[in-house]
């Protein structure tokens, strides 16, 4: 996650933060699908790895937020 997104999430109530994380996760899903449709190249694989890393961080953040609810 970017620092700005992390700061935004930290400033929100947990329920609102989870909504934002879900929206970002959906956007990353769409970007991942778009990248897959481009074809299998080293560059696309690198982009997919980065998207997956971002999604992993989002899921960790979401889990920590939902654990505190």
Structural summary, described in words:
It is a single chain. The chain is mainly alpha-helical and 69 residues long. The chain has one domain (13-67). The protein has 3 helices and no strands. It has helices spanning 3-11, 14-38, 42-67. The mean pLDDT is 93.
Query: Quick one: how many beta strands?
Result: 0
Radius of gyration from the alpha-carbon trace, in angstroms: 14 Å
The structural class is mainly alpha
Number of domains: 1
SSE diagram, text form:
Elements: H1 3-11, H2 14-38, H3 42-67
Helix pairs in contact: 1-2, 2-3
Short description:
This protein has 69 residues and is an all-alpha fold.
Feature tags:
mainly alpha, 87% helix, 69 residues, 0% strand, elongated, single chain
